[in-house]
Design goal:
alpha+beta, 9-stranded antiparallel sheet, 29% helix, 161 residues, 3 helices
Length: 161
């Protein structure tokens, strides 16, 4: 009888551990795709009409990140820890064109430089925060399909296809 209780208890613990593991994996995978940057430091992002809306795209499998600051293109790699919510975007670079409106770009770059954590909210948004927990950037998923670095969709965006 004691052996049955022990085995039942072990099964419950294993099931709970399995759920915790899959939940944290889902959190990291939730970063996949293209995200429109909609808020920076609590302010709505409204780039000049002839500039691109700033966005970030993540490919969790390859750890690549790409995007636009509204003027210049971003590309690089990232590290994320679903369990702690930490994200490292320090391995990014950008093109260096000048645009007539550099304010949105500067706000995007400043917010990314301060980003230490991320949170996938219940409403489907993504939030980046600094080391104190203050939200610096709010993003809204632009499309649900997975976009990966170097695929045909990315090639078309860059004018290669």
């Amino acid at each position: 009888m004691q052996m049955k209780k022990l085995l039942a208890g072990m099964a419950v613990v294993a099931a709970l551990a399995s759920c915790a593991t899959s939940n944290s994996a889902l959190s990291t995978n939730g970063l996949n795709g293209k995200w429109t940057i909609v808020k920076i430091d609590g302010n709505n992002v409204t780039p000049d009409a002839d500039l691109e809306t700033p966005y970030l795209g993540f490919d969790v499998e390859t750890k690549h990140v790409y995007g636009s600051t509204s003027c210049n293109q971003l590309i690089g790699s990232f590290k994320a820890n679903a369990k702690t919510g930490e994200i490292d975007l320090d391995e990014m670079g950008s093109t260096r064109m000048m645009c007539h409106d550099m304010q949105t770009e500067q706000s995007v770059l400043n917010a990314l430089a301060k980003t230490k954590t991320y949170k996938l909210a219940a409403d489907g948004s993504l939030r980046f925060a600094d080391g104190t927990g203050k939200t610096g950037m709010g993003l809204k998923q632009k499309q649900t399909e997975k976009l990966s670095y170097g695929n045909s969709t990315q090639d078309k965006q860059c004018g290669y296809a």
